[in-house]
Design brief:
Order of helices and strands: HEEEHHHEEHEEEE
Distance between the termini: 88 Å
Number of strands: 9
Shape: globular
Helix content: 25-40%
Oligomer: single chain
Radius of gyration: 23 Å
Strand content: 15-25%
Strand order of the largest sheet: 4-5-3-9
């Protein structure tokens, strides 16, 4: 009976490393914001008027200087990214998959399944062009948090901000669907937390 000689250790090591590289390697996301941003060419983000305003007392337009915080632009994935994410999530639970229980950090998730660096930069630049302040880009690149005054938010998102009262508490919210430049629509899916903002203490 012929004996089987084991492969040299260094050959096995190279094979294992190369296999891991092929498994983990994902192409960097390509930019989706590729057209010139024109402020007069707008698209409406539907479904972004909070239901809370319907059951609250509308106190009228909010003061233009009121400071609003913790608002977030919700970011979307490209169809190919979503398909890749769906497969990865299935692979995590598949014991026969090389990706079985190979969890990603939030930063790795964002790099793989979030918008490209240039898309994030374009969104931040647009916010800042309206005087709004970047608070943070989430580690997973699912949203961009920002703050600013009522007048800045109204001007950027083309929606009035009113003051509301409910159960003895005051809050501020948009009363119409926000609008953003069409060039951003491939990445920005909506606006969140416009119904939970409060004025900063004076």
């Amino acid at each position: 009976m012929a004996s089987v000689r084991p492969l040299p250790i260094f050959v096995l090591a190279v094979a294992i490393i190369w296999s891991a590289v092929l498994t983990a390697q994902e192409p960097a996301p390509g930019p989706r914001i590729t057209t010139q941003l024109v402020e007069s060419e707008l698209t409406t983000l539907k479904g972004n008027v909070p239901l809370l305003v319907r059951s609250s007392d509308d106190l009228g337009p909010a003061s233009a200087s009121t400071q609003l915080t913790h608002m977030r632009l919700v970011l979307s994935r490209a169809p190919a990214q979503q398909a890749a994410l769906d497969k990865y999530l299935a692979d995590l639970q598949d014991k026969s998959s090389p990706n079985y229980h190979k969890w990603l950090t939030p930063q790795q998730f964002g790099k793989r399944y979030g918008p490209a660096d240039s898309d994030i930069a374009a969104i931040v630049s647009w916010l800042e062009s309206h005087g709004l302040k970047l608070e943070e880009v989430s580690a997973g690149r699912t949203n961009v948090a920002f703050s600013g005054t009522v007048s800045q938010v109204e001007e950027a998102l083309h929606t009035p901000i009113h003051s509301f009262a409910r159960n003895g508490e005051q809050f501020f919210s948009n009363t119409l669907e926000p609008q953003i430049p069409m060039a951003l629509a491939s990445v920005v899916a909506g606006v969140a937390h416009l119904d939970t903002i409060r004025p900063r203490p004076q």
